[in-house]
Specification:
By secondary structure, the protein is an alpha/beta fold. Helix content is about 35%, strand content about 15%. Strand 6, helix 7 (about 240-245) and strand 7 form a beta-alpha-beta unit. The chain starts with a helix and ends with a strand.
Amino acid sequence: MLLSMKSDREFVAEKDAQILELEKQTLLALERSISALRAAKQAPQKRLDAYKYPVLTLPNEIISEIFLHFLPPYPDPPPLVGRLSPFLLTCICDRWREIAIATPTLWRAIDLIPWRPRLELAALTELYLKRARGCPLAIHSTESHGSPSPLLSYRSSWEHVKLYHASNWYLMFAGPTPRLRSLHILQLPSALDSFLVSFTLEHAPLLRIVDMPIIPHATRLPKLPWRQLTSLTLQTVRLHQLVSILKQSPDLIALRCYIHFQGGFVQSLNDIPCLRRLTSLSLDYAVKPQDRDLLSFFTVPALETLEVPESLLGYDPIESIKRFVAKSCCQITELRVKQAELLASSYKKEIPSIPSIVCERG
């Protein structure tokens, strides 16, 4: 028994020695192979280490400009967060993050999305405002319950404001807005009929574009710097209100009106002033009027484009256009007749002086 165990021990020791020798030989071979591979990759690796991607060689100013083209054209806002927001540019690399944060114009257009918790929305708004660092701001809001409080302290930077629901925003305009250039109010809450009666925006020296509804039963018009406006869209405005506004807005270049007709036409239409600078006129109605030639009350010698429903051209639409052109001595280049019964060919045959005529069926 003892002799057998001794023989086994010798055999195992012999095999261990053989294994150790083979392992040494294998390790040496592997080391040689690894060394050869490392030596083979040195030259290409040096070339790669010396290479710089072209985008990383650009100056920060050029990268900032490229970043601006990633966003929608100002003043249209990008999403507040997500893949198409400025925040994406801060997640690529450290350098891009620094450049994005140091580019104020990336953060100047703010889209206030209503579905986010209000505290989170206020925090994001504050972050945008800080990173914009005094840039003129474009504010878009679909909020129906007011606006984030951080905006109030930046009122002097508002440049373009678009509100889908006016809500309590009129309180935000209680002070000067020295940079404001355009104001769009698209919808009034039904519970705030007194909104525009109380609305005051008189300290806005750069304001030129206004798009807003006028409450039909309002006893007075909102206080706006009408005289300095060049583009005006009036939603649901009554005729006497329209006349009053046009008397105060002699420098209009573009005018779009959605007229609320009630009880036919009023005599004050005869008081519509000559709009000498107007080049674009679009008329429409919120309530279908009686057939009457509304266009005949306008005198617009510089008019180039006209858009009007056929029902506002009276009983003989083509003659109405011809009389209007003769009265105003204007050279219309584009005519769009909406809700038309006549064909465009009929207009073109009788009024060949207008190059482009489009008729849209009702």
